[in-house]
Write a structure and sequence with these properties.
The protein is α+β, with helices and mostly antiparallel strands. Helix content is 66%, strand content 15%. The chain has three domains: 3-205, Four Helix Bundle (Hemerythrin (Met), subunit A) (Up-down Bundle), CATH 1.20.120; 251-396, Beta-Lactamase, CATH 3.30.450.40; 399-558, 2-Layer Sandwich (Alpha-Beta Plaits), CATH 3.30.70. It contains twelve helices and 15 strands. The chain has a six-stranded antiparallel β-sheet. Strands 10-11-9-14-15 form a five-stranded mixed β-sheet, with helices on both faces. Strands 3-6 form a two-stranded antiparallel ribbon. Helix 3 (102-132) runs antiparallel to helix 5 (145-250) and helix 6 (255-269) packs antiparallel against helix 8 (367-398). The protein is rod-shaped and about 220 Å long. The mean pLDDT is 91. Bound molecules: guanosine-5'-triphosphate. Guanosine-5'-triphosphate binds next to helix 10. Guanosine-5'-triphosphate is lined by residues 435, 437-440, 443, 448, 451-452, 455, 477-478, 549, 553. It catalyses: 2 GTP = 3',3'-c-di-GMP + 2 diphosphate. Keywords: Nucleotidyltransferase, Transferase. One of its GO terms (molecular function) is diguanylate cyclase activity.
Length: 559
């Protein structure tokens, strides 16, 4: 709760408390006033009753006396004598009750006086009756002194009673007014108090609601933050793994190695997805799978024309939200009609599309995982491109560009290696030194290009006559060498004969003009008979070739 609001709530509570306190005090005071006014009303009633009692008692005294005088009954006499002090007491009681009211007090004194006089007059009559008899007593009554006194008592009684009734009326009104005021102020005070309390409570409820909302927002923000931190940690881990992957890829020496490294790295980075990597063949007609791993949620063909893939067609990633029902590449299909997410990402390096990578998962992965896919494919593209470049450079360094055969440097490296291997396994190795006969004439007749065309055809012919383990090389100019591992002298001569015969049948055209008949002379040397040394073996084969030339060409001479 902020400070301002806390102050306002405190002020509201204090005000409510003060108001309720005031209402309480007011109610107590009002109640006291009400009790007081009620007491006064009661008092007035008492006064009126006492006045009535005085008048009634005096009347009783008068009646009893008259009854006694007329009948002489003893019980009336006793009643009369008993009522005399009662009348005095009643008059004294009135005087006591109205002592607080000077006006009425004066009247009460007067009333007491009159009562006393009336009682004295009555007693005189009684005494006369007792001493002088009825007639004397009757004469005294007839004189009218008692009647006169009684009239004055009645008048005074009336005045006092009227005064008391007036007081009673005013006191009742005051009491009612007090009661109403008390009621109204209690209701108003409680009402205002309740309103104030409601306002404060409402403000507090709003504050509690706002606090709860703020807490919920804070909790949400915390959850977001935790998620972000988690994602950040995940991304960091991905970056670290990708960096390690990139480093490993750079050290790969073959596509196979690169695929093995990718299998390990991508399996760890994308444990819930399946992956497949394709390379487009040199002929550009087919994309061929070179590695699959993980747990694919969709199947993808091992071999397919590049146009079957949207990513290859468009040169950018293509995503299929639902392989079973949405738009998808033709080479991707659902497994058992299960829904699956799939993406094809082209392997692009230096502006060239090398192939593609396909990833499939049960459901669309998080953005961070897609980033991993794209980054991994980028690294793999670069690695494959570098390997291809290395391969091309290596090929250039060991191949003769005109004939496509291995060059002399590669020949010398290979011969040494193959000789050692054949020596190890106790096998023979033969070398054929092949030279086209009168090659100069082709150059002279058809130009250097014509000579080149013939060299190219000769190269293809030799390549066609190679087994997997044979190595065909251009030794220099129009001279070729074939290394035949595990081939003895006799079989080498037979192979040489095949080649010589094939050269004879060569039909080479240059600029639509047929080149003349082509023949070749071949010298054969065999390990270990001719030599155990590579250089010596070559020299012996070359010497045999020289002999073949000397003997008339288009023939074979073995060392
Ligand atoms: N077109 C072309 N000619 C080449 C190439 N290298 C060497 N030559 C030529 O090949 C010819 C070799 O001629 P020679 O050594 O006299 O041998 P030849 O004419 O084949 O005669 P013999 O070997 O004795 O049968 C030369 O004229 C070279 O200029 C090449 O790469 N292309």
């Amino acid at each position: 709760m902020n400070r301002n609001l806390r102050n306002r709530v405190m002020a509201g509570l204090l005000l409510t408390a003060a108001l309720l306190l005031s209402v309480g005090i007011f109610v107590i005071r009002g109640a006291r006033q009400f009790v007081s006014s009620s007491t006064w009303v009661e008092h007035t009633h008492d006064v009126i009753t006492a006045l009535e009692h005085v008048y009634a008692t005096v009347k009783d005294v008068e009646a009893d006396q008259r009854g006694f005088l007329l009948t002489g009954r003893v019980e009336l006499e006793q009643e009369y004598l008993a009522n005399l002090p009662a009348a005095r007491t009643a008059a004294a009681n009135v005087a006591r009750l109205v002592a607080d009211n000077p006006e009425q007090a004066a009247r009460a004194t007067q009333l007491q006086d009159l009562v006393e006089k009336r009682l004295q007059a009555s007693l005189e009559t009684y005494t006369t009756y007792k001493t002088s008899g009825f007639d004397q007593a009757r004469s005294m009554v007839a004189a009218g002194a008692g009647i006169d006194l009684m009239g004055r008592i009645r008048e005074l009684h009336k005045t006092m009673a009227a005064q008391e009734r007036d007081l009673l009326s005013r006191r009742v009104t005051l009491s009612e007014t007090n009661a109403r005021t008390l009621e109204l102020s209690t209701v108003a005070g409680l009402g205002v108090g309740l309103i104030l309390f409601w306002l404060v409570a409402r403000r507090l409820l709003v504050e509690v609601r706002e606090r709860r909302r703020a807490e919920a927002l804070t909790a949400g923000a915390n959850a977001e933050l935790t998620k972000s931190v988690h994602e950040l940690a995940l991304r960091e881990d991905h970056t670290r793994q990708l960096s390690r992957y990139a480093g490993m890829l750079q050290s790969c020496r073959s596509v196979g190695e690169a695929i093995d490294v990718s299998r390990q790295a991508i399996d760890r980075l994308l444990p819930d997805c399946g992956s497949a990597v394709y390379l487009i063949r040199a002929s550009q007609d087919l994309a061929e799978s070179i590695g699959t791993w993980g747990r694919p949620a969709a199947s993808t063909a091992a071999l397919f024309p590049p146009q079957d893939c949207w990513a290859l067609r468009r040169g950018q990633p293509f995503e299929s939200e639902d392989v079973g029902h949405g738009v998808r590449c033709a080479h991707v299909s659902a497994i058992d009609d299960a829904s699956a997410w799939s993406i094809c990402i082209p392997l692009v390096a230096h502006g060239e599309i090398l192939g593609l990578a396909n990833f499939s998962c049960g459901r669309a992965p998080a953005a961070s995982q897609r980033d991993v896919m794209v980054a991994a494919v980028e690294q793999l593209s670069l690695a494959l491109s570098n390997l291809r470049l290395q391969d091309s450079l290596r090929t250039q360094s060991i191949r003769d560009p005109l004939t496509g055969l291995y060059n002399r440097r590669y020949l010398e490296e290979s011969l040494t290696r193959e000789l050692a291997r054949c020596d190890r396994v106790g096998k023979a190795l033969s070398v054929l030194m092949i030279d086209l006969d009168h090659f100069k004439r082709f150059n002279d007749t058809h130009g250097h290009d014509g000579g080149d065309a013939l060299l190219t055809h000769a190269g293809r012919l030799l390549q066609a006559h190679c087994r997997a383990e044979d190595i065909a090389c251009r030794y220099g100019g129009e001279e070729f060498t074939m290394i035949l591992p595990e081939v003895d002298a006799e079989r080498a001569r037979a192979r040489a004969e095949q080649i010589r015969g094939a050269v004879e049948t060569l039909d080479v055209y240059h600029r639509r003009e047929k080149l003349g008949a082509v023949t070749a002379s071949i010298g054969v040397a065999t390990f270990p008979e001719s030599s155990r040394e590579a250089a010596e073996l070559l020299r012996r084969a070359d010497a045999a070739l020289y002999n073949a030339k000397q003997q008339g060409r288009n023939r074979i001479v073995s060392d």
